[in-house]
Amino acid sequence: MDMNIGVIKGDGIGPEIVEEAMKVLDQVAKVYGHTISYTQLLMGGASIDVAGVPLTEATLAAAKASDAVLMGSIGGDAKTSPWYQLEPSRRPEAGLLQLRKGLNLFANLRPAVLYEELKGACPLKEEIADRGFDLMIMRELTGGLYFGKRSTEEIDGVVTAKDELTYNENEIRRIARRGFDIAMKRRKKVTSVDKANVLDSSRLWRKIVEEVAADYPEVELEHMLVDNCAMQLVKDPAQFDVILTENMFGDILSDEASMVTGSIGMLASASLNDTKFGLYEPSGGSAPDIAGQGIANPIATILSAAMMLRFSFDLDKEADAIEAAVAAVLKDGYRTIDIMSDGRKQIGTAEMGDRICSYIK
Ligand code: IPM
Ligand code: MG
């Protein structure tokens, strides 16, 4: 297969971790007989430095023209980086939101799996970690608070900031369908997470999710309030299969879910629209504090590349090979510093990529 992949290395640790994911993709291409052409795209701080804005029309068009986009991470240190002297709509994060919206990437899949080998890095009590977990957060990505109207103004002499939270039934329906579709391929359970005891948007969410559920009689549906979900994720993560939720709740819960897997450096993600196109990126940030040191964990990005092969190219065998290689390297005791524990061998970013490649033959 010929794959035309857009690459956004981004800021901070982005370039280092993407480098390793490309290494792994190239190894897969070599072993399984595919060809990959990469188009480098600028987004976030790297784009601000060159073009003055975090996402240009040309980059958006080039992203659209590719089969899929692999991304590292964007953004810098908000205290010291000049990017954060700019008005909010010109900062690195705005580029990511424009890209998600511009490509209509409404479905964000964030799998959180506790690897057998990483149980030692899991911060939960031993008896909880021992049970393991394998859950998928299905986060709505183009609606809600992130894309509502905002303003900061003086009202009656008091400075007042406003962020609007809007969802319409169609936006809810399409993400709910995705959630149930994924559940059908997994353990057939959906936990829809909302704040229906307070928010109108959550009450509509619940109603539409129930309507969609009627089309999936095999899938068990439960509703859970978001505060309770935050608690259940550390109390008993094994209870979850698919967590279906809106944009902001999904942002928060996915960071929490990643941490209970041991490290945010392990959490992959796919952002999808109605076509085969997808944007694949680790769920973690650009970690400017460790950028350039060669110690960042590239596994989340490598696993995101596996998701790309699976979802955008239907290359399940190849995706399986990457996932198996990651598990094998962990089994052999190799760890980046974020998942390091006693008796394991600490290695850097590039060596982690090399070792994962060595298992793909
Ligand atoms: C994420 C990130 C982004 C988000 C930021 C960088 C805007 O935290 O992908 O989870 O909030 O969606
Ligand atoms: Mg986040």
UniProtKB/TrEMBL annotation:
Annotated positions binding substrate: 100, 110, 139, 227
Gene (UniProt): leuB
GO molecular function terms attached to this record: 3-isopropylmalate dehydrogenase activity; magnesium ion binding; NAD binding
Positions bound to NAD(+): 285-297
SUPFAM superfamilies: Isocitrate/Isopropylmalate dehydrogenase-like
Protein name per UniProt: 3-isopropylmalate dehydrogenase
Catalysis: reaction(s): (2R,3S)-3-isopropylmalate + NAD(+) = 4-methyl-2-oxopentanoate + CO2 + NADH
Organism of origin: [Ruminococcus] lactaris ATCC 29176
PROSITE patterns: IDH_IMDH
Keyword Thylakoid: no
GO cellular component: cytosol
Top EC class for this record: oxidoreductase
Enzyme Commission code(s) on record: 1.1.1.85
Residues covered by the Isopropylmalate dehydrogenase-like domain: 4-356
InterPro entries: IsoCit/isopropylmalate_DH_CS (IPR019818), IsoPropMal-DH-like_dom (IPR024084), Isopropylmalate_DH (IPR004429)
Cofactor or coenzyme needed: Mg(2+); Mn(2+)
Family recorded in the similarity comment: Belongs to the isocitrate and isopropylmalate dehydrogenases family. LeuB type 1 subfamily.
